[in-house]
């Protein structure tokens, strides 16, 4: 081929080796699956979801379950480089020989699966919603009614059931019944979705996601779905900040789309500004008494600011004026903050 023509095609991103390009895309899909699920036990029917920001765009709609089956079936004919990369990723070549725990072969009897189904059916009826049904990694059946006597006290390793599901080792009819009740197969992904939903609702209510560290979703507030109530959202937000480097790009983008505040100190400053602005709106000045605390259950104040010791904060700001960041002082000046004002008495 004429070198000039090849150069033009190169500049257009022309793919010369289709096989190699396809391998890269498939490996990317497998790497993403492992990052999300923690393993490569892909269910045979799994297809990469379309338009899902957690997945690279090039992988959308790949029939990953079918791909994994073909890779296992053609192991001996794969390019050595491809096989080596799959081994490094921890690819499972023989699904029936996959081990768990201390060398035990993963096998769950149909009878045990039916017991789990019965447990899920009862939990589904007991809970206050029908959005989903989930358990922790282990579940011990309570020794009280309405739980059947023959199951009371029994332990269920839910993690093992979830692993068996990803390995396509569960009875299909039982899986279908569990799916109908919204049984959660991937708890990590489920918890992330709940966290994002909680942040979105918080933003809808308060206009921001500057969640106080100890904010807990109120149990009696009808603006929150029942399955989110009592969630310690502030603690979760704090934990997300501390492990930011471990988040996927897609997770970070989802949080950025909500204007998530990554800097805890910046969060504190923004909340103080909100409180000062509200105080000024209510009192026509910023002469905050030193002992002033934002009232609780006061309709004039946003509930996420309740119990903030605003007077003490203002006093501390004034006493540390010379060491404050320039940007923070400018923000305070912009709202008319009084640096040398005499405090009001209560």
From TrEMBL:
<dbReference type="Pfam" id="PF03457">
    <property type="entry name" value="HA"/>
</dbReference>
<feature type="domain" description="Helicase-associated">
    <location>
        <begin position="271"/>
        <end position="337"/>
    </location>
</feature>
<feature type="domain" description="Helicase-associated">
    <location>
        <begin position="189"/>
        <end position="260"/>
    </location>
</feature>
<protein>
    <recommendedName>
        <fullName>Helicase-associated domain-containing protein</fullName>
    </recommendedName>
</protein>
<dbReference type="InterPro" id="IPR005114">
    <property type="entry name" value="Helicase_assoc"/>
</dbReference>
